[in-house]
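Support reply, case 0932

Customer input (verbatim):
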Amino acid sequence: MKILLIEDDPVLGSALQKGLTESGHDCEWTPSGASGVKLANESLVDVVILDLLLPDLPGLEVLKRLRASQPHLAVLMLTASGSIEERVLGLNSGADDYMVKPFAFAELIARLAALGRRKTAVSPSQIEAGSLTIDLSSRVVKRGDRELDLTPTEYKLLEYLIRNLGQVVTRRMLCEHLWDSDWEGVTNVIEVHINRLRNKLNKGCGNDMIQTIRGRGYALYPDSTNPD
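Our regenerated output:
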C-alpha cells in the first residue's frame, strides 16, 4: 500500500515511516501540509495519514483540498486531542478514520488494512470526464460511442491525466509516473505521446480535451472546458 504521512513531529514522523516501511508499505513522509497536498496530487496514493495540527496549513484545510481533488482518497487523521467534538468535526469534514495520540502501532496497521479493504470495495470501475469514459477493469476507452485504440503507454498517460482532471500535470510528473525516471532528456518523448493521444482523442471531435499549459505541462478538461 502506498501511504503518504503528513506529520510535523520529527520523532513520530520518522518512527511511523520506519515502521510502515518495515511492515511492507511504501511510505512517504512530509512535515508540511502544503507539501502533502502537492505530493498527494503528484502520485497515486492509497491512504493519507494526516495530523490535525500542522505548522503551515491546518489539517482540516489539507483534508478539504485533498477531498476536492481526490474524492475517493482514504484519509486517516491523527490528533493529540481525544475530545468527541474534535473527532466528530474531523469525520464530518471528510476523514475516513480517526486516531488519538498516543496509539499502538499495531492498531494503526489494522486500521490501515481496513481502509485499504474499504477503498477496494468502493473504488469506481469506471471514470468519466465529459464524453470520455475509461473502464478500469477492461481498459476500454471511449469518447462518446467511439472506442479508442490506445497503446499501453497512451492508456497509462490518459488514466493519469483523468485522475488529475482539471489539474496541471508537469512533464516531470509524467516521467516519474510512466517511466519512473527523471524528465531530463525525455521531454520530446512525452510530447510525442501527448500528440498521439491527443490525435486519437480528437478524431471526429471538434474539442481538444488535452490542454498544453505553456511552461508548466498539460491538463485534461472535460470536453476542453479550459477555465483559463
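We compared this against your earlier run and they match. Two observations from our side: The domain at 2-122 is CATH 3.40.50.2300 (Rossmann fold). The first strand starts at residue 2 and ends at 6. Please reopen the case if you see a mismatch on your end.
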